[in-house]
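Input.
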Amino acid sequence: MELSGLNTVIIGSGIGGLAAGALLASRGALVTVLEAQGYPGGCAATFSRQGYRFDAGATVGCGFHPGGPMDVLGRELDIAWPVRQEPVAWRYCHSSLSLDLDRQGSGVLARFPESRAFWQEQSVLSGLLWKLAAGGLPWPPASIADLAALLRKGFSGFPGTSRLLHFAAKTAYDWLVEHRLDNNTEFVSFIDAQLLISAQATSRETNAVNAAIALDLPFSGAWYIEGGIGRISEQLALSIERHGGTVLYREKVERMHTIRRQVFGVETSGGLSLAADLFLANLTPASLALLAGISSDSPLLRQKGPAHRWGTVTLYLGLDAATAAGAGNRHLQIIGQSGDPGEGNSIFASFSMPGEEWRAPGGCVAVTVSTHTRPEPWFAAIGKSREEYLRLKSIYVEKMLDLLASHIPGLRDGIRFLEAGTPITWERYTGRHGGYVGGYPQTSLFDVRDPATGFDNMLLVGDSVFPGQSLPGVVTGARRVVELAGRG
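Output.
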C-alpha cells in the first residue's frame, strides 16, 4: 500500500500510537489522532495538579542511548529529545541491602560475584537484541519477506543468534537455573524486582530473551526527561502536526462502524464521524473488543502469556525538596520485609529535579510512587460500595507511605500534596479495560501477540503487541505496524 496520501485514524495517543502516527505522517500519510483526555501520553503522560506536574505512570526514560530505538526515532523525525543521562538508574533497597544500579554494574557484582557469568551472557544477548531491533523487528513473522528479513539479520549476528533461539521458549527463571542461581533467594528476589519494573512480570513469567534486554536498562542508561515523561508524547504529537497531521483531544471514540472484516468509520464523544483507509488502535485488546462489540471467543481476546496481569496503585506526592533530599537518589526501588512483589510490599518512587519550577512550586518536588496490584479486588470492592473501595485505597496509601518513610526521614511532615490512583482510576483515565497496565507478560517468543485485530484495515499498536512495554518496546512495535501498513 502506498503510504503517501493514506488516510489514517489512530485511536489513542499513547507513545506507540503517536510514534506510528509520526512515522506515517513523515512518509506522506494523512494522520488524525483521537485522544479522550486533554493531553497525550496515556500511561506515559504527565498531568497537572495544583501547580505540580506528575508523571502518571512511566517515569524512567530509556532507549535514548546512541543507536537505541528512541535515539534513532528522534534523528529520523528531527526531534531533539529534552533528555539527559542519569548517573544511576535507580537505587535498590531491600532490608540492609542498598545497591545503586549504574552502567558499570559494579555494585551488583560485588554483592553477587557468583552471577558474573549470568551478566556476561546478558550483555551478549542484549547487545544482539539492540542490533536486531534496529530499524524494526519483523516478529512474529507475517510473510516470507519477514522470514527472509529475520534470516538476514540473524546471519549478520551469527553465532550469537543461536543463543537467542536457545532462550526463545525459556523463562528468565529457567535461565537462572542454567547458571545455578535459582537457589540464591536474595539474587532471585533482586532479579524479580528488576523485571517487575522493566518487564511487568517476575522471572517465572518473563521470557528469557525479553529479560535480557529488560535487565539491560541500567547498563544502556536511564535518562531524565526535562518537564516529565509526557514531553516525549508532546514532541511526537508536534511531529505529526509538522507533517500535516492532526491530534484532537477530548475526542473519545465511542463507536466503530464495521462491515465484515473492514472498519469504515468511527464516531467520537464530540460528535465527529471519521472515515479512513487505515485504523490503528492504541488500545488493549480487551478495550478494542469492548469498543467494537467483538465476541468473547474472538482470537483477539485469546490469552497470551500468564493468566494474571498487573494494575497499579500510584501515589502523587508534592514533597518539600529538603525532605526529598533524604532519598539519596532520584529513583528508589524499595522492597518490604516480605519480599513479595506488588500489593504495597514493593514500591518504585521517582522524584523531579529540585528547582524545576515547571514541575513543582518553589521549594517542592513532584513524586510518583507506584506498587503493582491485581486489579480484580479493586473492582470487587467498588462493586460492593464506595466506602469499601475507599477503605481499601486508604490501606494501600498508608502501607506505601510507611515503606517510603522507612528510607526518607520525616517524609510525612514534608508532604504538601497527596493524591492516589488505583486500577479504577487507570481504567477511567487511560481507557484500559480492567485497569491493567504494562502490556502482557510473555513467557515464550513463539506465543506473542501480533498487531492483527481480525479487521483487514485495523492494526493494534502499543504495549499489548510484541515486543511489549517500555519506550523502546512500543516504538519498535510501532515501526512494525508502519511496515505492515505499507504492505496493505
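The longest strand covers residues 311-320.
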